[in-house]
Write a sequence for this structure.
């Protein structure tokens, strides 16, 4: 739905490798709405709104993500779920309250928010040239939790960024513990040629490995505690796929939690009782299924022709 972002991160190689990067380019609202309507009419159950920074959608056209979402929900009929992609904290903060009101008013949007913080240290965020503070991230999470206490919140953390001290690292760990983040995409910093960060003083590889191991253990513990809250609950969602082992069907609940069940129809809306949990997923018993004979899933991502956007 859009390419480019409004940032200038010191570790990002994309702006070097892609001409015109930094200039947000967005599809027209009507083009997206029509494409989604067509996908839903063909049986699509899940719609992924994706881009490099979807919170910046429409900045080049005079509108924003909230307006796009309103148009989709008001103009596309049918039973489907929308998953919002990654949203940078600064841009998201400009629309967060309107966005939450829209999501609250329509069940067809997953209660899922991917907001990358990258570090729990303002000093490291400055080195990264990120345009927000840790406190802004905290405020966004608090706003989401006030409206949707059981929303799934995902974030990204980089450990071992050049200049990161032990204090900075533990600030990241404590932030995830404090906020009870459901899912953390953890990355060990890797030097990218021609980026500003590549010429900074590097953290030794062994230190990065140790920090990554510690962070993984802590983040998994936080995720497990968060998932255990749902044991015993009845949840509804869409049977999305078969897991990578081919042993279970995966239901994506209304808050995008993956729930493994033994047997179900792909594409059906179902009700599940959660019986167990790990840090990665929930396990459940199928209670009720609205099978519509759909045995496929359409992953709809608007990605073609982005280089043709004027």
């Amino acid at each position: 739905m859009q390419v480019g972002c409004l940032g200038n991160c010191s570790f990002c190689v994309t702006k070097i490798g892609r001409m015109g990067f930094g200039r947000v380019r967005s599809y027209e609202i009507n083009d997206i709405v029509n494409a989604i309507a067509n996908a839903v009419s063909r049986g699509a159950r899940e719609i992924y709104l994706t881009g490099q920074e979807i919170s910046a959608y429409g900045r080049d056209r005079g509108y924003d993500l909230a307006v796009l979402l309103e148009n989709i929900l008001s103009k596309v009929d049918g039973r489907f779920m929308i998953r919002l992609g990654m949203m940078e904290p600064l841009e998201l903060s400009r629309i967060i309250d309107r966005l939450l009101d829209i999501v609250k008013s329509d069940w067809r949007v997953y209660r899922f928010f991917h907001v990358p913080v990258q570090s729990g240290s303002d000093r490291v965020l400055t080195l990264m040239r990120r345009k927000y503070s840790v406190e802004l991230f905290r405020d966004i999470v608090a706003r989401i939790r006030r409206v949707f206490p059981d929303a799934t919140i995902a974030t990204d953390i980089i450990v071992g960024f050049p200049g990161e001290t032990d204090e900075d690292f533990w600030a990241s760990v404590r932030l995830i513990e404090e906020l009870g983040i459901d899912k953390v995409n953890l990355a060990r910093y890797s030097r990218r040629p021609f980026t500003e960060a590549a010429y900074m003083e590097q953290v030794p590889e062994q230190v990065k490995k140790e920090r990554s191991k510690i962070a993984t253990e802590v983040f998994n513990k936080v995720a497990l505690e968060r998932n255990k809250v749902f044991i015993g609950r009845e949840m509804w969602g869409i049977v999305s796929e078969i897991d990578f082992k081919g042993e279970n069907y995966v239901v994506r609940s209304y808050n995008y939690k993956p729930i493994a069940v033994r047997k179900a129809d792909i594409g059906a809306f179902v009700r599940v009782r959660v019986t167990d949990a790990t840090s990665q997923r929930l396990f459940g018993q199928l209670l009720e299924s609205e099978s519509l004979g759909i045995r496929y899933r359409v992953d709809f991502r608007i990605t073609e022709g982005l280089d043709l956007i004027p």
